[in-house]
Amino acid sequence: MRDFPLSMLDTANSENFWKDCEELLHVVAANKISSPIFGQRLQALVYGRLKKAVDANKIETVDSVDHAALAVGRRTSIGTVEFSKFSTPGPLLALQQKQRHLANEGKGSPLTIATDTIVQRFETDPEDPLNRPSILHTSRGALRFSKTTTNLVLAAGAFPNTTILMNSVGEQLKGRAGSRVSGHFLTQIVARFPIPRSAENPERPLSKHLEIGAHYMAGKDSTSDLQYHVQITAIHSPRPETDAEDAARLSPDQAGAATFEQLKDSGQHIVLVCAALGELDELDTGSWFKHDPNNPDVTTNSHLQVLLSEKAERLWDVMDQVTYDAINVMAGGVSNDIEYWSHSNVPSVPPGWSRDQPPQCMIRVPGIVHETATLYMSDDLETDPHASVDSDYRPHSCHNVFVTGGALFPTSGSWNPTLTMCGFAQDLAKKLHEVRKSETSSPS
Ligand SMILES: Cc1cc2nc3c(=O)[nH]c(=O)nc-3n(C[C@H](O)[C@H](O)[C@H](O)COP(=O)(O)OP(=O)(O)OC[C@H]3O[C@@H](n4cnc5c(N)ncnc54)[C@H](O)[C@@H]3O)c2cc1C
C-alpha cells in the first residue's frame, strides 16, 4: 500500500480489518478447500516446486509465493455442491432478508433494492451551507431526499463513481477527480508440460479426475519500485470432453481458465494458465479520466486515456520474464518439455501448442483491469491539490456523500483489489453507523 495516507494504513492495520473482509467474502486458501478438485496433489506439486525456487532466490525479483486465497461460495447444510465461487447476489439477498426481519421487529430499517435503475447524478441543496445532496436523478426518475441527514454512498466502481461526481459536483473536484488513473496491465501465458514421471511423492499420483491448483506469486521491480504478481492456475484434466466445462466454471479467475482446445490433447499434461498483473505508474500524467460535457449521456460522458510510462514498460518486461522463469520451474526445470499455446491472427494458421514462446503481441492483453486512483484519498486535501476524497471518504467540499471502491486507492500495488475494497467499505459502514448512533442518542 505504497503512498497510501496514514488514515488508510491505520484502518488496514486495525484489529479485525482483514478478518472481517475475509469473512464477508469467505476467503479460503486453495490448499484448504475441501473438494476433490482443489487442494490435492497438483496443488502441492506446483507449490513445492515454486516455493523451493523462490526460497533459493532462483526466480529473480520474486518475493513470495503462496497458495491462492479464493473467495468461496458458502456451503449450505443441504448443499451437494463441493465448491463454488463467491457471488454477490446470495449474501446481498440474505442481508435484505435480515433487515426485513429486523424492521418487522422494530429493530432496524428495511434494505430496499431498486433493480434496472441507472444513477445519473445528484443535486445538492443550494440553500444548504453544508452542500448536502437533496435529489438523486436516476433512469427511473428523480428521488428527493426528505431529510438532510440522508447519506449517499457511491459504490458503482471506479470510473462510474468518478463520472457521477463529475456530473454532480464537478466544479468542486476540478483538477482532482480523474487527474490520476492507475490499475493493472495484464499478460496471459498458457503452457503445458508432461505429468512428471518421477513425481516428488510417487505414492500419491495425480487423481484420475479433474484437479485444479491455484497459486499466487508476488514480486517487485527494484528499479521502478512497481509491483507485479502472477496468478497461476494449474489444471490436470484426464477427460477433457467432460472436464472442460467444470474447469472453466471452477477456475479461480476468468484470466486463469483454460479453453477446451487447450485441454483437448493435454490428458497426459499439466496445463498452466498464468495471468501476470503489473501496476501502472500512477504519477504518469499521460493517464487520465476526463469529463466530456459535450456527450449528452451523463452516464458515459467521460474519456479515459492510459499510457505506459518508461517505468511501467520496464516492469512489464520484468514481469513477462518472471512468468516464463516460473513456468520453467513448475515444469521441473526441463525446458524442452514445455509447450506454449499460440493463437495466430492469420485464419489459415490454427491455434495450437508450440515449443516456441509466443510473440509479445499474443500474450499482452490490451487495456487495463482493476482500475483505481481516480478519486484517491488524502489526509489533507488542501496540501494535495489532486486528491478527491478526505479520510472520512467524503469528496472535497461535500457532506453526506461518500465513496467506496478502488477509486480511493492512491496507488494500485499489484494485488487483487476486491478484498481491500471490501475492508474499506466495511470501515465506512462502521463509521456511518457510529455517527448515526451518536446522532440518535444525543439529546435534541
Ligand atoms: C473478469 C474480471 C476478473 C476479476 N478478477 C478479480 C480477482 O480475481 N480478484 C479481485 O480482487 N478482483 C478481480 N476483479 C476486479 C473486481 O471485480 C473489481 O475490482 C470489483 O468488483 C470492484 O468492486 P466495486 O464494488 O467497486 O464495483 P463493481 O463490482 O463494478 O460494482 C459496481 C456496481 O455498480 C453498478 N453501476 C455502475 N454504474 C452505475 C450507475 N450509474 N447506476 C447504477 N448502478 C451502477 C454496476 O452495474 C455494478 O453492479 C476482476 C474483474 C473482472 C472484470
Automatic annotation (TrEMBL):
Molecular function terms from GO: oxidoreductase activity, acting on CH-OH group of donors
Keywords recorded for this protein, A-Z: FAD, Flavoprotein, Oxidoreductase
Gene3D superfamilies in alphabetical order: FAD/NAD(P)-binding domain
Cofactor: FAD
InterPro entries: FAD/NAD-bd_sf (IPR036188), GMC_OxRtase_C (IPR007867), P2Ox-like (IPR051473)
Record domain Glucose-methanol-choline oxidoreductase C-terminal: where: 367-425
Family label: Belongs to the GMC oxidoreductase family.
The protein's name: Glucose-methanol-choline oxidoreductase C-terminal domain-containing protein
